[in-house]
Amino acid sequence: MAHEFEGEHYRICIDAHVTSKDALFSRVTDTAYLGYSSFTGWDAFMDMFHSRLSNSVIRIEIENRDLCGLPERDRSTWVEVLDELKDEFPDKIRLVQSNG
After folding, report:
1. Count of Cβ atoms closer than 10 Å to residue 100 Cβ
2. Sign, Cα dihedral of 37, 40, 41, 47
3. pTM of the prediction?
């Protein structure tokens, strides 16, 4: 019998409709209800995400379904951000495979 996770649980799908870092930030914060609405850049976004993971009983699954809408630089930065967060919070954030 599987143990139910007792905390916040979100699944965020990043797809081709996400065409800028601002749209990416909104997709993450709107889906996971992180309580933030705007950022000045990647550093502020990373600080928010790190703080939220540090201070919450939360599990966030990220489905990178289609990153082609993001500019290459933002795509690379997003992957680096996820790698750093996964390394630091392996029980709170993970990448999941697309189901379709």
Report:
1. 3
2. negative
3. 0.84
